[in-house]
Amino acid sequence: MRPQGNAVRAAILTQGAGVEFLFLGPLEVRHADTSIDLGGQRRRAVLAALLLRANSLASIGYLASAAWDRPLAAPESNIRTHVAGLRRTLRESGDGDARLVTAQGAYRLEVEPSELDLLRFHEFAARGDASLRAGELGAAMTDLGRALELWRGEPLDGLACPGEVLVAEATRLVDLRLTVVEQHAAAAIGLGRADLVVDGLGPVLAEHPLRESLWARFVEALHQCGRTAEALAAFSRARETLTGELGIEPGPLLRQAHQRVLTESPDLEPAVRRHLPVDLVGVVGLRDRLRVLRGIAEDGKSDAVVCSIEGMAGIGKTRLALHAAHQLADVYPDVALWVDLRGFDPEHDPVDPSAALESLLRGLGVAQVPPDLPARAALFRHRLVGERALIVLDNAGSAEQVRPLLPGTPGSLVLVTTRRNLAALDGARVLALDVLPRAAAVELLVSVAGRERIMADPRGAARIAELCGHLPVALTLAARRLLVRPQWTVRDLADHLEDSDRLLARLSTGTRDLHALFDLSYRALRPDQQQLFRRLGLHPYPDFGPDSVAMLCELTPAAVEPLLDSLVDENLLHHTIPGHYHFNHVVRAYARNRARIDEALRPGSRGPEWTKLWPAEELDLAQGYVGIGGLGGGGADV
Q1: CATH number of 195-270
Q2: 517-623: which CATH number, 1.20.20.10, 3.30.43.10, 1.10.10.10, 3.10.450.10?
Q3: What is the domain partition of the chain in residue ranges?
Q4: Which residue from 32, 54, 101, 499 has the highest number of Cβ atoms inside 10 Å of its Cβ?
Q5: pLDDT (tens digit, 9 = 90+) per residue, 83-117?
Q6: Using one digit for the tens of pLDDT, what is the confidence trace for 539-576?
Q7: Is the model's pTM score more than 0.70?
């Protein structure tokens, strides 16, 4: 739903406002229906920050954090310059400069509600919310509709490198707009006029597919319009999206909307026998692995096959498994189910096998699920007898969690994704994923940021790939940095990532934090494994042997080697050749950060006493170091 704001904005202008400030979309200032040239990006960001605090004082600190994405050495001088420019622009447009006030070392932009779409939006939204709560649906629909008409697009669209304050405010406003969309739809449905809103909800959901409450309104609106089959299809898409992206089943509001459709349409079949998240296309560098999985599927048509896809965090296990599951629909046409076992999840405990079986059985259309684990497992196996079924058990934490979920029925394939070695899963074939080779790593950068931009500097692109440890998740985040910073070159990004102590922070985004990604693996370790992992992060080299690690940890080589091998099993280390272990560049950066946090080390500090035991020269002698920099660095050629 992309509301057209012309009617409302025209009404505002007729109230006598000389200048119109437009925030709800690309930032714009209009005078006498003519757009005013605001100048450069930074000046526009300062204006956006002032508009967010319209009629209130905006401090220097606030303006600096809103308009700049990095700390400023002299924020007062920079902001004073841009404020002066804004005053000059407003004065030259005929508005005068009195509305931009300086007081108490801060600035205030004075505007009337009729002059700023943001203020009018809040006014209409508040009135509509009050009417809706009072049961005055007609009034609510009118005011909420007027609020939505003010939106011309995403706030700050086209503004390069806004500061974190502006980004947070824009996100909050988008969320508020979605609430108003839902309220507007609820008022229309309550009036029996879902036809007025139903076609506008689909485009909004395309932009915000994880908004569960919006899906519920869409299902209700479709059903009220007599489009019941579409309502059921919408629920299926919603469930697929929520489970695929968030690993959660639909909540009460969406389930109730679905149940009302089924109750009023008793002849419809609610069972879903193919339930997979959306296909994740663009599996760069994994074509050979896809061929291996197809070979396993073809060879096992009459058998029960289990394949464990193993590898470190961010290497693309889930992406490969889901893409393969979609590609193998011809081999397994009857049933395709997926469940997230949350073996490594910062906010949830691992899914109990009994709960996972309930989700799988409901995916098969079972309405009455038995209460205990053995009965559920038996019913699951029974339902799959004679079926060509593919089951994806994503993010498994242990063999014990997986074992009760294996159907064991001929003609079934189970793909398990996991960060650790599941050697205890008897009979499972193992498909171990390594980081991408250089060519595939650069191609992944190209697929995200564009060929022309990346290949303008092949050496810089190769350096970015190296700094990202050839790890798909890090490469994707690095390429996205280029997308949001169009003024950066490939070399600029490579230079930005050179500081290994800040590498993870510079790659992370608000929605994808690499620290959190590796925290999940770290927290699953035993205390002795955690301590070894931290201290390995402070080793001066990415390659090492048991002798130098023993010196590092004040243990014997015989005691260290099993610990090193256990970290290999957790896919936190590579065992490249006998006697030598290797850290991925990104994992090593995480380990160093963990050491500084948990070992109380800071740059320039002396650290605990044990750090005196391992100067680089002594470690060189202990491991006979000869610069094994290439071991495991580029991964298998997949």
Answers
A1: 1.25.40.10
A2: 1.10.10.10
A3: 1-191, 195-270, 287-307+328-412, 438-498, 517-623
A4: 54
A5: 888 888 888 777 766 788 888 788 888 888 888 99
A6: 888 888 888 888 877 788 888 999 999 999 999 998 87
A7: no
